[in-house]
Specification:
single chain, 210 residues, alpha/beta, Rossmann fold, six-stranded mixed beta sheet, 5 helices, globular
């Protein structure tokens, strides 16, 4: 059975304006994943939606997160795309991470969060330092929130510091970036398929008095 992936682009730019380098990196990963039987069903531009601050799955009237949450969790894999701003993931990416904190309190009878058995990978771009720091912060949070991170689960490109060239401006994808994307796709598809066929068992006594 084919695997389904969805991408989120946490660029600060809304759709319909200037093109996003984050989309370019997401497209690179999607093309490599397709070769492993993973179908990208779409990319959500998070800046187009009203994601209210909070740490629950529904913050009330006007909150677009509940529908986005359901859409994301309906997939086997999440491509989490973010640009680097001031050496950090974007503020929108942080908002998404904060809203997923609710997963910790939404476990089933075996202690499994809604994200258990689902794989997350990172697509990171910027023209300043920070890719390793963003990867560390992002993967720590996603792991805490139940996502499975494959070996080599992040693909990034950073341009020369204090210059204006972006990933989308490159004539071709650099060889190291392409090779990283290829390994990410192979590892992510492999672990996602294993988890789909044999989900995490959890712990039957989780949350009960011992």
């Amino acid at each position: 059975m084919p695997l389904k992936a969805i991408a989120i682009n946490c660029s600060l730019k809304r759709s319909g304006g200037e093109t996003s380098s984050t989309d370019e990196m997401i497209d690179l990963l999607a093309s490599e994943l397709a070769g492993h039987g993973v179908d990208l069903t779409g990319t959500i531009r998070m800046a187009d939606h009203n994601i209210l601050p909070g740490v629950t799955s529904d913050e009330g009237q006007g909150d677009d997160w509940p529908a986005l949450r359901s859409r994301i969790l309906d997939h086997d894999m999440l491509i989490f795309g973010t640009p680097i701003w001031l050496g950090q993931m974007s503020s929108i990416a942080k908002r998404v991470i904060e809203r997923m904190d609710a997963f910790l309190g939404e476990t089933d009878d075996c202690g499994r969060m809604p994200s258990f058995g689902k794989v997350a990978v990172a697509a990171i771009v910027g023209n300043e330092d920070g890719a390793h720091s963003v990867t560390a912060d992002l993967f720590q949070a996603l792991n805490d929130e139940g996502w499975t991170i494959p070996a080599g689960g992040a693909c990034y490109w950073v341009g020369e510091a204090m210059q204006s060239k972006d990933f989308k401006d490159l004539d071709q994808v650099p060889k190291p970036v392409r090779e990283t994307a290829q390994m990410l796709a192979s590892n992510a598809a492999h672990i996602a398929r294993l988890l789909k066929d044999s989900p995490y068992p959890g712990v039957a006594s989780h949350g009960k008095d011992q």
